[in-house]
Amino acid sequence: MITALLLFWPALAALLVLLIKGQGAKKVAFVAALVEFAIAIVATTGFDAASGATQFELNLPWVENAGIGFHIGMDGISLLMVLLTTFLVPLIILSAFKHDYKNPNAFYALILFMQTGLIGVFVALDAFLFYFFWEVALIPIYFIAAIWGGVNRIPVTFKFFVYTIFGSLFMLAAFVYLYFQTGATELAAHSSDVQAFYQLALSAESQSWIFWFLFIAFAIKMPVFPFHTWQPDTYTESPTQATMLLSGIMLKMGIYGVLRWLLPVVPMGVSQWDELVLILSIIGIVYGSVIAIRQHDLKRLIAYSSIAHVGLIAAGIFTLNEQGLQGGVIQMLSHGINVTGLFFIIEIIYRRTNTREITSLGGITQNAKALSIFFMILLLGSVALPLTNGFVGEFLLLLGVYNYNAWFGAVAGLTIILSSVYMLRMFQGVMFGTKSEHTEAFTDLTFNEKAVLIPLVIMVFWIGLFPNTFLSISEPAVGNLLNIINR
Amino acid sequence: MTSIILLSVFGIVNLFVGFLKSKKILLPLALLFLIVVFGVNLLGWNNTQTYFNNMLTIDNYAVAFTGIMVLTTLLILPFSQSYIDAEDENLAEYYSLLLFSLVGAIMMVAYENLIMLFIGIEILSIAMYVLAGSNKRSLRSNEAALKYFLMGSFFTGVLLFGIVLIYGATGTFDITEIGAANVMADGTMNTMFTMGLLLLVIGISFKIAAAPFHFWTPDVYEGTPTFFTTFMATVVKTAGVAAFYKLMNAAFEGSFTSWFPTVIAITVLTLVVGNIGAVIQPSVKRMLAYSSISHAGYLLMTLVAFNDLSENAIFFYSLSYAVASVMSFGVLKLVEDAREGNQSFAAFNGLGKTNPLLAFVMTVSMFSLAGIPLTAGFFGKLFVFSAVIATGNLTWLVVLAVILAAVGIYYYIKVVIAMYMQPAGENTKVPVSGFAALVLIICTILTILFGIAPGLVSNML
Question: Which family does the similarity line name (chain B) (predicted)?
Answer without folding.
Answer: Belongs to the complex I subunit 2 family.
